């Protein structure tokens, strides 16, 4: 009985980690969406053109009322490696600063 318990514990200990799969997630490609908003439609349109020129797919500007103020928003999409998400966020922050808009973070499309 003691050996059987030891055998089960060894089996369970080995099931939680696959050493051949350590870097696979970092090399996986995903669709990354990044969200921008502003009270100024023209700023988002300028950003939209720049993002398209840089190879991103970009939505059309959309307006909505938020706390009595009209806000405009767009989102961009790009295929990136999981390991590149942080650098893409940094690029998005730089775009937002350059065009005077707000960066609202990233997300992933529902599949």
Give a short synopsis of this structure.
The chain has 111 residues and is α+β, with helices and mostly antiparallel strands. The protein contains three helices and five strands. It is elongated and about 45 Å long.
Give structural attributes.
single chain; 5 strands; five-stranded antiparallel beta sheet; elongated; 38% helix; 111 residues; disordered N terminus; alpha+beta
Description:
The radius of gyration is 22 Å and the shape is elongated. The chain contains 3 helices and 5 strands. It is α+β, with helices and mostly antiparallel strands and 111 residues long. It has helices spanning 2-15, 41-53, 85-99; strands at 29-38, 57-58, 62-66, 69-81, 102-107. Helix content is 38%, strand content 32%. Strands 1, 2, 3, 4 and 5 form a 5-stranded antiparallel beta sheet that branches. 13% of the residues are buried.
């Amino acid at each position: 009985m003691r050996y059987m318990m030891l055998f089960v514990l060894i089996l369970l200990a080995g099931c939680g980690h696959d050493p051949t799969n350590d870097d696979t997630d970092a090399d996986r490609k995903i669709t990354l969406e990044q969200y921008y908003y502003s009270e100024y439609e023209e700023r988002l349109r300028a950003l939209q053109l720049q993002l398209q020129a840089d190879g991103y797919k970009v939505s059309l500007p959309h307006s909505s009322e938020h706390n009595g103020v009209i806000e405009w928003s767009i989102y961009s999409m790009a295929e990136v490696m999981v390991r590149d998400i942080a650098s893409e966020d940094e690029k998005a922050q730089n775009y937002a600063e350059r065009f005077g808009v707000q960066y609202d973070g990233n997300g992933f499309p529902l599949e």
